[in-house]
Amino acid sequence: MTIKQVLHRLNRRDSRFLPKISTPLKIFLVILFVFSTVLLSQKIFAQETNPIKEKQDAMMKGNNQEAWLDNAMGSNLMSLQIMLAGTFPDSILEYKKGDPVYKSYRPQGMVGFGSQVIASTFTPSASGILYLAQLKD
Question: To the nearest whole percent, how much of the chain has pLDDT over 90?
Fold first, then answer.
């Protein structure tokens, strides 16, 4: 049978491409499908263990790849923090209530530089001569 004949047969309305299935056969197939899925199915667990708990236990054990990656991630985050805000003085890290250094601390890094640039646009010069010198610069 050629492709043209198959397409012609599919387009015809008076003949069926597939044989007709009787109603009792349909009912039998549905019952067979339901019973086979119920009787032949069983529980299948995708994972027997908890991967998060395994990863945490491996990091706590130390001296393995997970512990090394955890340490590397902490180092990278600390480097990012130093790049953004600079290093903190010991008086900030060991905060004592009422310490004057805590109130006068200015961040360094990109955050400190950005805040100094913004503050310099709002800080007026002390005198007219300094203002003219600043405009000249």
Answer: 12
